């Protein structure tokens, strides 16, 4: 959402006074139908993600579960084709997260991490391990790629740190942890879409932090030309974020930038009457630009029955809409760039009863995928999009 659009919304809707809460009555603006269901195995699939880095692969997606990374392609008519599957040598590995990245020559990499704390960089061209990153002291909850420089990834870990890596050379550039860092597991991380220096992280401690790499950018640039052993690289510690706020009374397990605004999903316990929800908010920096700030909460997107941790929402490429699954196998699709928030669709199916760990929206939002606790992958397609393509 552009700043001018949001300022218009602020004038019209008086945002910043009381948050605007979306209604759970579906507008039925979108009509999605199930076009496929795959049983990948009997164990949970924790992550599912489309490749938005390369227009040749926009319909390609990857999943992770147990020690396996699988790559699929969405074809017309609801068809899902298996392209490749990689099983990690460590039999007891359990991958929790996967992200697409690129080598400097543009070839696609898959980056996966989980229980062991080791990050695997897989060259999708030859289906071989390109690099393994060892450094985190505990399991990895999320990996995200810097879309402006897709050789850079960030990993959020149970060891309370966020690390920045270069997949091309294999070096750990920065460790975001310490005096001003997270005080519990880091659960989610996201790079700013247009500011190459900034990223946001959130975690079990209920905080969202914004970090800047600007001061350390020479180190980032050095990582691209490093030829010595990765262990000899002068990794820098970043102890203080430029912004930190406790937006939520409980933990935050997914956070994404929406322009300069931030979408965060947080969980309330069964004993609290407050709805589980995704919140759109604006970070308000202190004058000196470091440390504690405040949050101007603009909008709330309710997501019922999302009260178990590690359920991540996804957005289409242009962040027009977001999809979030819940523990009953239902999906809520919210329009992001409207106020008050509009529920585009509520997706449910009699056989979809298992907790949805993550959704993936296609480039244009016409396909929604979900990966579930019972090892299934579900594909939903926008009926109007299907009709217009066949017509």
UniProtKB/TrEMBL annotation:
The family database entries (InterPro entries) matched by this protein are listed as: PcG_WD-repeat (IPR051243), WD40/YVTN_repeat-like_dom_sf (IPR015943), WD40_PAC1 (IPR020472), WD40_repeat_CS (IPR019775), WD40_repeat_dom_sf (IPR036322), WD40_rpt (IPR001680)
WD repeats: from-to residues: 133-175, 179-214
Which family does the record claim for this protein? Belongs to the WD repeat ESC family.
Q: Which SMART domains match?
A: WD40 (SM00320)
Q: Which domain of life is it from?
A: Eukaryota
Q: Which PANTHER family does this UniProt record tie to the protein?
A: POLYCOMB PROTEIN
Protein name (Swiss-Prot/TrEMBL): Fertilization-independent endosperm protein
Q: Which Pfam families match?
A: WD40
Q: Per UniProt, which keywords does this protein have?
A: Chromatin regulator, Repeat, Transcription, Transcription regulation, WD repeat
């Amino acid at each position: 959402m552009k700043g001018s659009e949001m300022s218009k919304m602020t004038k019209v809707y008086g945002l910043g006074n009381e948050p605007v809460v979306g209604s759970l009555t579906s507008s039925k603006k979108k009509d999605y139908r199930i076009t496929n269901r795959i049983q990948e195995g009997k164990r949970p699939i924790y992550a599912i993600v489309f490749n938005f880095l390369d227009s040749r692969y926009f319909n390609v997606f990857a999943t992770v579960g147990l020690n396996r990374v699988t790559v699929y392609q969405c074809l017309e008519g609801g068809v899902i084709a298996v392209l490749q599957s990689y099983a990690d040598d460590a039999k007891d590995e359990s991958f929790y997260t996967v992200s697409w990245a690129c080598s400097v020559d543009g070839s696609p990499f898959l980056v996966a991490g989980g229980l062991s704390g080791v990050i695997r960089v897989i060259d999708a061209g030859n289906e071989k391990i390109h690099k393994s990153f060892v450094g985190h002291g505990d399991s990895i909850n999320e990996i995200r790629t810097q879309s402006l420089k897709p050789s850079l990834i960030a990993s959020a870990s149970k060891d309370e740190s966020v690390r920045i890596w270069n997949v091309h050379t294999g070096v750990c550039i920065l460790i975001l942890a310490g005096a001003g860092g997270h005080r519990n597991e880091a659960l989610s991380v996201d790079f700013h879409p247009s500011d190459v220096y900034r990223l946001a992280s959130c975690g079990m401690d209920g905080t969202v932090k914004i970090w800047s790499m600007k001061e350390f950018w020479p180190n980032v640039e050095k990582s691209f030309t490093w030829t010595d052993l990765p262990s000899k690289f002068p990794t820098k510690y970043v102890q203080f974020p430029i912004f930190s706020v406790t937006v939520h009374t409980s933990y935050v397990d997914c956070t994404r930038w929406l322009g300069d605004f931030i979408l965060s999903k947080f969980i309330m316990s069964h004993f609290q009457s407050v709805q589980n929800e995704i919140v759109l908010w604006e970070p308000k920096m202190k004058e000196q630009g470091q440390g504690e700030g405040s949050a101007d909460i603009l909008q709330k997107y309710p997501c019922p029955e999302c009260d178990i941790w590690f359920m991540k929402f996804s957005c289409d490429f242009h962040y027009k809409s977001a999809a979030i699954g819940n523990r009953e196998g239902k999906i809520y699709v919210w329009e992001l760039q409207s106020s008050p928030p509009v529920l585009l669709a509520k997706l449910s199916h009699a056989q979809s009863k298992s907790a949805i760990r993550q959704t993936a929206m296609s480039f244009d939002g016409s396909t929604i995928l979900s990966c579930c606790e019972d090892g299934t992958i579900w594909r939903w397609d926008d009926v109007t999009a299907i009709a217009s393509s066949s017509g």
